[in-house]
Sequence to fold (476 residues):
Amino acid sequence: MQETKTMEQIPETEPERQLYFMSRIKEENRLRAEELGRNLTYHIETFGCQMNAKDSEKLAGILTSCGYTEAATEQADFVLYNTCTVRENANTKVYGRIGYLGNLKSKNPEMKIALCGCMMQEQHVQEKIKKSYRFVDIVFGTHNIYKLAELIYRKNHGEKRVFEILESTDRVVEDLPSEHKYRFKAGVNIMYGCNNFCSYCIVPYVRGRERSRKPEDIIAEVEKLASEGIVEIMLLGQNVNSYGKTLSEPISFAELLRRVEQVEGIRRIRFMTSHPKDLSDELIEVMKNSKKICRHLHLPMQSGSTKILRKMNRKYTKEDYLSLVSRIRTAIPEISLTTDIIVGFPGETEEDFLETLDVVKKAGFDSAYTFLYSKRSGTPAASMEDQVPEELAKERFQRLLQVVSEQSELQTKKGEGQTVEVLVEEQNAQDPALLTGRLSNNLLVHFPGSTEQIGTFVNVKLNECKGFYYLGTLVD
Fold:
């Protein structure tokens, strides 16, 4: 009878409903911690993109609010894998790690295992988890990240295993706790999903159609972050250039940037990812005139061949891409351009590959994320004819890496000898005597300094170019 009364008190609206479940679990965890004589712990492993990393910050915030303390390894009471499924081998890697968790759980009866993210949106993955990994307690997808506390509550109160995967949603739930990795910079989701359906990509199928957040909600979040000492923000979306099109009162991404720039306390604004077909002249103009938007643009090319771009369903040509690069560089000469490139897409000939090398040389990328094409089941490209032999694709890949490396060094060399403003991010992992900072153009510099400077802006002279980064010294 008491439980029925309690159930009647559960709020129906969000995020109040989730805050309710967090408070209930926190009390239950407090009592259990007293019995054990120690705090209950959690550990999150994140696979994949920056959107996943942002989701993991939210999940960490929820678990902290539930009374869990973060642990450095998977030897914890609650372990959560936030998965990626962009490539088949990402799934294979996760399955191996789940097996490892099963061994840990056999030694710790307190342990709960949860899986979420893009991989869990696939029906065949759900079935495999149900049948082959019966020790997994909670499984959810990309559309109900915000419901973690409620799912834990259901597990704690009678459900043997909790599986909740939504095929789609038009809902956006924010205003929940979040644990930022850094105290001086943070990501802000401005939209979810993707409408582009590139023929090699599974993302639209697992993250759903585009859903934009209201601009006033985004600005409110940025203002709150600024009040907490955040000085740099990264606006996140699968394709930020199409932001605002699904809103009842449409707004362009360029206009959103104008509004974000007005927030006091924010000194740097970054964003990703930009689809070339949607990058407007208005956005270029806003970037040109901005004092806060960083001089870096990630502009995925994927291929330099118009024929291959058509097969990829990218909706632009080689000439379109180079024209866009030209307009950007004319307006913002100091811009740093980075890109994504896929080698060995079905039907790619030597001529097509040489077109890609041609664009790399003409565009002058500062760096490129390069990928060997691999079949992704569930995408149109997986069943295309003329799959490129693996050895040939690898040979082309090595040639691409060489050209990218040469271009990167040429671009980075231009900064040598300059003194620039740097946001100090961390102590250098290889040499504790050095700090690592990031320039506005997203390149890194390593220089001697004090850990007290982490999170602050300093001036650094770029003494020596090392290809993808610099060695420097502090300038008073």
The longest strand covers residues 419-427.
